[in-house]
Amino acid sequence: MKHVFKSTAFKIIAAVIGLLLAGMFICAVNGHSETAQSTVIGTIFTPAHWAADKISDVIGKVTDNAKGNTEYDKKIDELQNQLGELQNQLSDYENLKEQNELYKEALELKEENSDFEFTEASVTGRDSANPYCTFTINKGTLNDVNDGYAVVYGKYLIGVIKKAYPTYSVVSTIIDPDFSVSAFDINTKELSYVTGDAKLAEKGNCKFENLDSATKITYGSIITTAGVSGTIPRGIVIGTVREINDEATNISTYAVIEPGTDIKKIDKCLVLTNYSIESEGN
């Protein structure tokens, strides 16, 4: 029995009872209306109420923040919608701007050649495996587009119709080694032809080749179509001379031509569907 009174559990129980009795005595002396037990227990558990109040406050704040976030979400949605509308307007503006540039330069070409007739086309596909930027357009024989027709962007030649189908066509560009057109320098009047070259195509350039080693063509010279034969008339700008080099296999010289526009980036073009025989250089 002595061991029970000396145990830790007994001491704890005795301490709790002592606290309760002390609390009841204090409350009785002070004349509190509530029972001593409720006062003491309330005193003991006050920290728990405090914690509960704090948790409630946090929950309230979270709810308020959630409501606030909902309002913010609405505002964000409104702003995103406005941004989307502005982006669409900007896209329309860029399309109109590009179309304006396309037609502005084409108009210059048509003013010089009133007989030229064009059909506008959109680029609908590209062959990613083709290093010469071959692309497909949404116009074909039903739109009077046929094999060999010149394809331009503004006033610049960018290729020819390689194969025309009823509703679409495949365009071979001027940097393709299979492409070839008679051409001349507008300053020196030197005549030869422009073709593609596998190495130069890596930088988007083509080649004005078979020039005389004593050529007077210089950096910055403008090369245009000569209209000697075929379906491409005279006077369409091909590009600008960037280098003059000697051929490694013979005694001739060639010029590196930078096309008048970046063929890789165009998404619209014009197909020259008609012109008078006088536009040829025969």
Description:
- With 282 residues, the protein is of the alpha+beta class.
- It folds into two domains: 1-112; 116-279, Thrombin, subunit H (Beta Barrel), CATH 2.40.10.
- 39% of the residues lie in helices and 27% in strands.
- The strands form two sheets. The protein has a six-stranded antiparallel β-barrel with strand order 1-2-5-4-3-12. It has a six-stranded antiparallel β-barrel with strand order 6-7-8-11-10-9.
Summarize the structure.
With 282 residues, this protein is α+β, with helices and mostly antiparallel strands. It has helices at 2-6, 8-30, 36-112, 198-201, and strands at residues 117-126, 135-137, 150-153, 156-164, 169-173, 180-185, 191-195, 206-211, 222-225, 237-246, 253-259, 268-274. 39% of the residues lie in helices and 27% in strands.
| Element string (H = helix, E = strand) | HHHEEEEEEEHEEEEE
Strand content: 25-35%
Gap from first CA to last CA: 133 Å
Uncertain parts: 25-45, 47-52
Q: Please give the CATH architecture of the largest domain.
A: Beta Barrel
| CATH fold field value of the largest domain | Thrombin, subunit H
Helix share, percent: 25-40%
Mean pLDDT: 78
CATH superfamily of the largest domain: Rod shape-determining protein MreC, domain 2
Number of helices: 4
